[in-house]
Amino acid sequence: MLNEATLRQVMSAVLNVAPSAIEQNSSMDTIGTWDSLRHLHLILAIEDEFKVSIPDDEAGNITSYALIKLVLQDLLKDA
Fold it and tell me: How far apart are CA 23 and CA 4, in angstroms?
């Protein structure tokens, strides 16, 4: 089961924003510090925290909180 508070903490640490700034509609378009390099760091941090491996074809496309949450929920249900 996905702990959204933990996901927000990971995202806030990598993106250098407050956890409260991470909302359902948060994305690369709405968070100014979320660039391609931080996106790579974010994927690695999420994989490390949740002990999952995000497939490369999905990693580049999950550019919003909602999409990250969907992918994680799917990966965690199989774990």
Answer: 10
- Domains of the chain: total: 1
Strand partners, 64: 27
Question: 24-62, pLDDT tens digit by residue?
Answer: 999 999 999 999 999 999 999 999 999 999 999 999 999
Output phi, psi for 54, to 5 deg: -85, 120
Q: Where are the alpha helices (DSSP H) in 1-79?
A: 4-15, 36-50, 56-59, 65-78
CATH number at residue 42: 1.10.1200.10
The domain of 36 spans 4-78
Q: Is the pLDDT of residue 79 over 70?
A: no
| CA-closest candidate to residue 75, choices 36, 49, 37, 42 | 49
